[in-house]
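Hello,

Our lab assistant flagged a job as stuck in the queue for most of the afternoon. It eventually completed. Since we weren't sure the result was trustworthy after the delay, we are filing this so someone can double-check. Below is the sequence as submitted and the structure that was eventually returned. Let us know if re-running is recommended.
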Amino acid sequence: MSVLVESEQELNECLKDNPRLAVLFYASWCPHSQRFLPLFEKQAAGKDCYRRVIVDDLDALVDKYGIEVYPTIIYFEQGRIVKRLDGVHGAGIDEGKLTRFVAECRLP
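-- returned structure --
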């Protein structure tokens, strides 16, 4: 299971401590997020380069990273955004898109 990050400060610490990190931003109330979460957790199982953030009360992070659709995954290297996978309005992210994203980022 991926590690849940609960604040902007905690995310900043994770980005400092991990040279490569894929972070899922999702909302607890979003059905697309809830459908996608098990796929993300399956991918993240036993790997340290995945984190997740429930953005319900973290508007500053939503603004900071320009998140407009849930779920969204942002891949960081050395704390900088390298690639992102934004969900599609009304559809979210499917397993195929996740698989391609992981391969493009060369994540385990």
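-- support follow-up --
The delay was a queue issue, not a problem with the job. The result is valid. The chain has four helices and five strands. The radius of gyration is 12 Å.
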